[in-house]
């Protein structure tokens, strides 16, 4: 039997007919979504191999031709029915109608609209398997390969010559141009080109099995439309380029870039979701069960575990402010800090674990790399993940740590180095672990001394919690010996996958903060400001820490699967906040003998301000501005029993005058008012 020779033209016509016979043709007004063609027939794959990088544009043209043929034929049939054309004559009528239509202006307008329809394609894995880049070797040079990857670096957009418009033969490809045959060049046609860096998507990532990175050349329609972090399926030629001393670099010369969806979200089953909802009706039980299930192999340490959970859940998605929480876990070595971070990076989706001593600010933020002759701006881990777990932050180089201050603080990552000039908002929480100075937390040292070498500006950006060895020695060591013998008595109520699904559910909630609970939060902050701390407590409690409390309360509201913050959520948030602060040496309650005023808890300056306000209120009837004399204030200070001697009282009075806490009232000698 004689073999039928299928010309390229015939193959393209067959694709058009296949589309008409097997696909739902989109309506004229439904062109926003791209048309996806599935290359699952060997003959269609053969056409792709023949055309190579020209296949996407050829497929697009055939798709557009199919839409035009379908709709114009449909219009012609409707017109034939209206004019009552017989069945014998209908085909002739349709052909005549189409010939006339092609010359009409309305057809040209419609054709132009149809040409806007985006077309993309995917190839069946039975025809071309999706491979791991680590398996691609020298034998694959010049082969067509496809693999899934994440864009982690962008190059400059440039142009290349691809075609000439000629005097004799119109448009010809650059490589096919012949001056004698085609005549002189009337116009050079350029196409966009961009060299990007991608990293293969690997589910089994380990230190010994790292995902491979490779440069991919994007062309034409794929240039400039993808951003860093996008997951894409790359189809292209595996090429050897840029020979130097007999060695070649390798790149992928793309045929097509197909955008994949985001990482598949792990969802709870209906049964599991209802179980969590039932538990949420008893908040203490939900918190205990989830916390026990989180790193079940770590004995005790409920607060550090809960801190990881609350930080991972976060405060919500509010456009007007940065709502990410950042957490620093400190404590002596061997208690479980690294295990907490590793477990967290595997339980929360879009999270990454990073060994800080081997990391750089460039690797975490933006960096510029040279791949051959091309410069690429590479997105670091913090730009590509929602949560980054930085282990052993204290051992990271100090100059690298300092570069993290601004990105962690305000969520902006900048890069200003030719040829790139960019500022990017990031949505990333940092969960870090650090050993204390000398690898031992000593209570007689100040907080900042214990947390050295971490710098104060960086510390100010974290909620800090200390992980400790549990005091219950019998149970703690019993748990350790069981683990040594392979006995697992810590079967969690929820699996890691169930926790992931639950946390994803929590993160969908954006709680409302009513006025009544706002006042409750403000009252606590005012109360806490009045608690006198000892000399070792030298970390500031400033606006940033107050905002952290509000974010913690919002995170607890999400944790409890509630849409509105209520008093119970506030109480849970405040309790947790106090426990974190207490773990590193803050006083969170007022000693009963701290002050002689039963209704006031505070340090000396806060007490002084209250006394001044009380005097102003008392004097307001007699003195219009409510001012007070020095002697009136000194008497009030004596009545509190807070200052030990007259010398203390007079010394404090001079101090508040120097610091501008009070000022002299205008026109009233010897009288003062509170600033």
Summarize the structure.
By secondary structure, the chain is an alpha/beta fold.
Number of helices, counting only DSSP H or I runs of 4 residues or more: 24
CATH topology of the largest domain: Rossmann fold
Any idea what the CATH architecture of the largest domain is?
A: 3-Layer(aba) Sandwich
Alpha-carbon distance between the termini? Answer: 104 Å
Low-confidence stretches: 591-602
Give the DSSP E fraction (strand runs of 2 or more residues): 15-25%
Tell me the number of structural domains: 4
Helix content: 25-40%
What kind of sheet is the major sheet? 5 strands, mixed, barrel
In CATH terms, the superfamily of the largest domain is: P-loop containing nucleotide triphosphate hydrolases
Globally, the shape reads elongated
- The level-1 CATH class of the largest domain: Alpha Beta
What does this entry look like structurally?
The strands form 5 sheets. The chain has a 5-stranded mixed barrel. The protein has a 5-stranded parallel sheet with strand order 11-14-17-10-18. The N and C termini lie far apart (104 Å). It has 24 helices and 21 strands. The longest helix has 28 residues, at 55-82. Strand 20 (662-664) and strand 21 (671-674) form a beta hairpin. It is an alpha/beta fold. It has 4 domains: 8-119, no CATH class; 133-259, OB fold (Dihydrolipoamide Acetyltransferase, E2P) (Beta Barrel), CATH 2.40.50.140; 270-583, Rossmann fold (3-Layer(aba) Sandwich); 604-674, Arc Repressor Mutant, subunit A (Orthogonal Bundle).
